Every structure is written in C-alpha cells, then in structure tokens.
C-alpha cells in the first residue's frame, strides 16, 4: 500500500493532481482545499496517501497531513458517506473546523458542503460526536453544554438565554460558547436575564 508520495507537481485535473515521483506520474484525487494549497506545476509536494484497491481499479487519495487523512477515514465510517462525500466535506471545512462543528453539534456548518443535505449532516454530527472532541479546540464546557442542549437536558434558563442570543443574530455555536462562560461565572442557579447579560458581555470581549 502507498502511504506517502513525495515528488513534483506535473499537472492538475478537476479533482486530482498528477504527482511525478521519480519519473512515474501518480494520479492523486484531493479535496479542493488541498489542490488550492499545492504549488504550481514543477513545484515540490508531499502528500499523505490513502490507497483504495478495487477489482477494476486502484485509486489514490491525497492529503496535506496525516491528520486530514484520518478525518477522511473517520467520515467514511458514517452511513451513507463515501470517499466522494468525505473529500467534499474536507474541501469545505478544515479538519479543526470540522471537529469543532461536530463537537458543537453544528449541523448547519457541515451541511454547507455541496452535495451534503441535512440528513447526511445530521448523521455525521451524531455518529462522530464522541470522536470529535479529541480533535476539537473548543472549550470542553461548551461541548458538554452543546450535548446537553442536543439531548434536551440543558437547564431551561440556559436554553432560553442561548435562544435569545440567536434571535439577536449570533450563531448557535457562538451563543452556546458565551452562555457556557456565563454559566460558569454565574453558577447553576442563574436566571435567564442574568445569563443573557453576562453572555453579551462575553461576546463583546
């Protein structure tokens, strides 16, 4: 199996690059973000490779980092997500943004991917929710709160305060982060109005 290729960019196709490695041209399929980050023809490049072997073909998928390749594999553990959809998701969201979106149950961010509808986005978020926090860089308290909201376990004042901030035009993840911080400083018995006031103060920092 091929795990990594290092060579010179020969040419580009719509969704692939031809990488010249010692005179042999490898066709490597990549996410759009990966292709845009690679150098012009003649430039040197290193790609982490995922090799797919089928009865009728061998297909190579390339990534700028092993971390990105790991997310490609993870995404395909979700029902209904194949290589094409996984590449499209990684073309829309960098790995850290994807991890954050899943950890925060932000289905709308995942659904921005062309070809990914609400149902597939829902499955990605729900099936990978336990794996994403390890890759995310968001406050664990916010992840916990997002999970509680998703499962209808969050205290009423908290959900009301988040709803109020969303109605003011803030995004759900942004509002949840602000109210999580407000809850920490105000305590478990804080009222909705107090949480909103403290949340707005967090957002203005």
TrEMBL record:
Quaternary assembly: Homotetramer. Forms an RuvA(8)-RuvB(12)-Holliday junction (HJ) complex. HJ DNA is sandwiched between 2 RuvA tetramers; dsDNA enters through RuvA and exits via RuvB. An RuvB hexamer assembles on each DNA strand where it exits the tetramer. Each RuvB hexamer is contacted by two RuvA subunits (via domain III) on 2 adjacent RuvB subunits; this complex drives branch migration. In the full resolvosome a probable DNA-RuvA(4)-RuvB(12)-RuvC(2) complex forms which resolves the HJ.
Biological role stated in the UniProt entry: The RuvA-RuvB-RuvC complex processes Holliday junction (HJ) DNA during genetic recombination and DNA repair, while the RuvA-RuvB complex plays an important role in the rescue of blocked DNA replication forks via replication fork reversal (RFR). RuvA specifically binds to HJ cruciform DNA, conferring on it an open structure. The RuvB hexamer acts as an ATP-dependent pump, pulling dsDNA into and through the RuvAB complex. HJ branch migration allows RuvC to scan DNA until it finds its consensus sequence, where it cleaves and resolves the cruciform DNA.
Keywords: ATP-binding, Cytoplasm, DNA damage, DNA recombination, DNA repair, DNA-binding, Helicase, Hydrolase, Nucleotide-binding
Chain positions covered by the region annotation Domain I: 1-64
An annotated GO BP: DNA recombination
InterPro entries: DNA_helicase_Holl-junc_RuvA_I (IPR013849), Hlx-hairpin-Hlx_DNA-bd_motif (IPR003583), NA-bd_OB-fold (IPR012340), RuvA (IPR000085), RuvA_2-like (IPR010994), RuvA_C (IPR011114), RuvA_C_sf (IPR036267)
The species this protein was found in: Bradyrhizobium macuxiense
MF annotations from Gene Ontology: ATP binding; four-way junction DNA binding; four-way junction helicase activity
UniProt KW DNA damage keyword: yes
Protein name, per record: Holliday junction branch migration complex subunit RuvA
Domain Helix-hairpin-helix DNA-binding motif class: 73-92, 108-127
Gene3D superfamilies hit by this protein: 5' to 3' exonuclease, C-terminal subdomain, DNA helicase RuvA subunit, C-terminal domain, Nucleic acid-binding proteins
Signal peptide start-end: none
Region (Domain II): 65-142
NCBIfam families: ruvA
Chloroplast listed as a keyword: no
